[in-house]
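>> received
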Amino acid sequence: MKIKNNINFKNASLVLLTCLLFGCSTSKLTYTNYLFTYFTGNGPGEEAIHYALSSDGYNYYTLNNNQPVVNSKEISSSGGVRDPHILRGTDGKTFYMVVTDLYVPEQGWNNYAMVLMKSTDLINWTHSIINIPETYPKEFGDVKRVWAPQTIYDEKKDQYMIYWSMLRDKGPDIIYYAYANDDFTGLATVPKQLFYSPTNSACIDGDIAYKDGKYHLFFKNESEGGGIRKAVSDKLTDGYVQQEGFYDQTEEAVEGSGIFKLIDSDEYILMYDMYKSGTYQFTKTKDLQHFTVVDNNISMNFHPRHGSIIQITDKEKEALLAKWGTLGESAFISFGSEAIKKNNVVVNDEDSTIYIPVKKGTDISNLDLGIQTVPWVSTSTSGVQNFSKGAVNYTIISGNEQKTYKVSVHEDNNPVLLGYYADPEIIYSHKNKKYYLYPTSDGFTGWSGTYFETFSSEDLVNWTDEGVILDLKKDVSWANRHAWAPCAIEKKIDGVYKYFYYFTAAQKIGVAVADEPMGPFVDSGKPLIAERPEGIKGGQEIDPDIFADPVSGKNYLYWGNGYMAVVELNDDMVTIKDNSLKLLNPGKSFREGTEVFYRNGKYYFLWSEDDTRSPNYRVRYATSNSPTGPLNIPENNLILEKKQGKGIYGTGHNSVIQTPDTDTWHIVYHRFTRPKGIKMGRAAGYNREVCIDKLEFNDDGSIKPVEPTL
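>> returned
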């Protein structure tokens, strides 16, 4: 699994020169483990200090069930802290931590303070808040951002130096430094500029590594293409010269780089947060110049953001485990059986149960769950068990403590796809006699996916991944971002089957064509829908839906966010009939995700209400006597919503499929990932999964409310 962490290690060696960077004791402490401190996100409660342990610098396990180890509200002026950087002092027994004082849900990205912290046991911390414009009103009264502080020991001055980035009224973010006072409760000097980009670009997330008489300042270049750059100096506080090129090994957007040295090794790890894709990249180096990706060696049972790492002793590790090595959900790293839907395992610490969903057809009378626990926890039960007669007891043990869970196994078909997908479109291919699902590839921060996949099935239950069918960065010339909400249709033209794929890219709608439902699809070369309809001032040009009217034989394309628009397509299916644009009125509940189908003389229009990040995202409908309206909106038109008792939330953006030659219908939709989505805040809106349930009708043609199921 790809890791998420961003670490800045500050005491890796007993070698004196390394101590200038990493801070260490001259006494012979033996370091055996790594402590990683981090925060988890931008939502409520996520900007807080967390701990994790590793014995090798590659595999990390969270402490305290991934809950904060320090109360952000007690130590900050904002209510949130981010970017924790931890340093062992030169005495070997004092620890220093600095954090950004920022609570994004209320402040956005503007803040004014950082927090200085001090401890002798890694458990109990004193703290001081340093508000820069209040402390230095003359020099820095116009500061609007105080980000990502770090600490390094300056041997020549015998003082701890803090460095961080600031943004003022004019110019970009610049990295500054100041020395801490003796008791680490404030700044002893007025901040000075440490590094200013020669290209006048913003510089944030600075991290200094000392090697071979040189200080290597890694930082994020916030503009000029973005990425991790480096400046080098033979002095700690001045003379940094920016080097050529970028040091990240990816084309993804990155931030929060950090570097640390492995125990008893001449190797360093440089890592950075690929924040838009929700992953981290780890690279290894010996010279701080050439880096090799080592992602395949990294694992974590949590999802951290910007943080740092120090080496710790066995005694320190045992003290942390005694305090926060709890027996609970985070004790379980993985459930290894290929039959298990791993994202959907529910560990309930309150009632001591574990719900294991498995694929249809799994022999639950002869199943090895393949449970793996964190290193300090063992389990009394292992191997093949019989779950067909009910729950099986599993006891986990750590030292003198133990906890028993009742583990039950259930054949659940939802979600129907493994992994994160959303906005599902479904068709039936008469050519191949199969169903095809076309979803948004999800799990990317801020909906930043750039490719589309498709899946095939003969029974709506068992799905085969047919791979990527359209990659914006490779296959589309007019857009390379935000691959969202596709739809597709099978057409027989002059006796030959063709497949037309309408997709959102960069908030515009394109069309691609293929000879097979699984592609490859060839883009038309330009967007089909690129502008808002006349008179529409808000919303986005997204969420296409294609509908072939069985009555008239005409083809219609619907789209819109905040408005519902429709056009008639020409017979070529890739151009719009002149003067055919029309705006429909689905009422105030309409947000996005139009879906149109025809049954027994009625045209049905379905749409999603609220925001995809909301637990209350849901589906309503209207009917019409025409594919272009007007719409008749039933008084009770809500047909799909959350099922709190089952932990199902955010049910929306659907498509509908009729089993050929029957009156059997199904609705295909996405929901928050279960069970973790409801705890993810707004990030649940891009960590979604695809489900299928029955769609049924009353005798008068009205749609019955759908029961979302597992």
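>> The longest strand covers residues 401-411.
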